[in-house]
Amino acid sequence: MKIAIPVYDDSLRIFTNTGHTPFFAIFEQVGSGMFKKIDFVELRHNPRGNVEASEGCSHNDSDMSEEEQIAHKLEHNILGEIIKDCQVVLVKKACKNTAKVFNEYGIKICKIETNCLNAKDSFVYIK
Q1: Which InterPro entries does this chain map to (predicted)?
Q2: Under CATH, to which class is 2-51+69-125 assigned?
Q3: HEC letters along 56-121
């Protein structure tokens, strides 16, 4: 099973706002129970990355026309493409468009507690 986690960089510090994460850290889990092993595989760049949007976005769908809302949702499709081979994404925060795209790609979303800072410490949140 492949797991994606939004991160700043190769330090694997978790990025709060999934839709604007600079990178996704990709891990692979093999085995289960006491034989479970989770290894770091790679970092994948997000072209929508915006370090200044770590805590949230300034855009609000209620301020947009229907056409703008559709275009905005389509911008999020790149997130699904980046991690389409992953079965799970661990997130602190994801807007409705981000969540919708992951659901459309069949990627399960699991919430990470806000006090979890590093991707390597987040695997306990996989349900």
Answers
A1: DiNase_FeMo-co_biosyn_sf
A2: alpha beta
A3: CCCCCHHHCCHHHHHHHHHHHHHHHHHCCCCCEEEECECCHHHHHHHHHCCCEEEECCCCCCEHHH
